[in-house]
Design brief:
The chain is of the alpha/beta class. The chain is built from seven helices and nine strands, in the order H-E-E-H-E-H-E-H-E-E-H-E-H-E-E-H. It has a single domain, classed as 3-Layer(aba) Sandwich (Rossmann fold), CATH 3.40.50. Strands 5-4-3-6-7-9-8 form a seven-stranded mixed sheet. Strands 1-2 form a two-stranded antiparallel sheet. The termini are far apart. The chain binds S-adenosylmethionine. The site of S-adenosylmethionine has 25 residues, from strand 2, helix 3 and strand 4.
């Protein structure tokens, strides 16, 4: 099924690209994660009933609608482009008519990802290259601070991961790779998901080491 047809099933419009008009170098353009990639993610990553997903740079909301519809999970999308955000809200209005039976909330917030206050229940964070690594670092540090305060295991799902994100996570954070999910048929090596996890125990172990020293 084509991308437009899959949009239609959900009652949304997410196909297309939107460039930033005013040369904002740190913010990347809008482009949705392909449905075939989302399908592979859904089949290979175990979403749990207790998960709460945040899509940083959610665009018109495709990932949020897809996961909400498939797994009935609470999802929040953060978007900094006002037009794109409005489109996500328009999508939500139609989608909600079709998905009345799903109790879990689906929310969109207008604003910068780096200013989003991480909810203590958020535990699964999605990124499809929304912004520069400088902003990515701020967002990841916000997540780490939240986890330190409200202990829990959290995952980062990176689609089409860029080296700068990976280098930062591998060298400067306690996140470790738990899975790599390739999108079959993709000719591009970057067409994959990398899942990074920070386990709840990490901070306890770090505290124990500190006490022992
Ligand atoms: C590549 S698109 C990904 C869209 C969606 N996550 C998906 O996978 O279908 C990146 C989105 O991030 C948004 N964005 C860029 N910088 C942002 C920021 N600092 N805070 C929030 N959103 C941002 C862009 O406007 C764009 O819609």
């Amino acid at each position: 099924m084509g991308e437009r047809k899959q949009d239609k099933v959900l009652g949304i419009r997410t196909v297309g690209i939107r460039e930033w008009t005013n040369n904002i170098i740190h913010y990347n353009r809008y482009e949705a994660t392909p449905y075939k990639a989302l399908k592979v993610l859904a089949e290979n990553y175990k979403f749990r009933d207790t998960d709460r997903v945040v899509d940083f740079g959610c665009g018109r909301g495709r990932v949020a609608f897809y996961l909400h519809n498939r797994f009935h999970l609470p999802v929040t999308g953060i978007e900094a482009n006002d037009k794109t955000y409005e489109e996500a809200l328009e999508n939500k209005a139609i989608y909600r008519l079709k998905a009345k039976h799903i109790i879990a909330p689906i929310k969109f917030k207008y604003g910068l990802a780096q200013h989003y206050k991480i909810d203590k229940r958020d535990n699964c964070f999605y990124f499809f290259n929304p912004f520069s690594v400088q902003i990515f670092k701020k967002v990841v540090y916000n997540i780490m601070r939240s986890v330190e305060e409200y202990r829990r295991t959290v995952d980062l799902i990176l689609y089409y991961p860029i080296c700068e994100y990976k280098d930062f996570l591998n060298t400067s954070t306690p996140f470790t790779i738990i899975n790599k999910i390739r999108v079959p048929g993709g000719s591009d090596i970057k067409e994959k998901f990398i899942i990074y996890r920070l386990k709840e125990e990490f901070f306890d172990e770090a505290e124990d080491i500190e006490l022992a020293n």
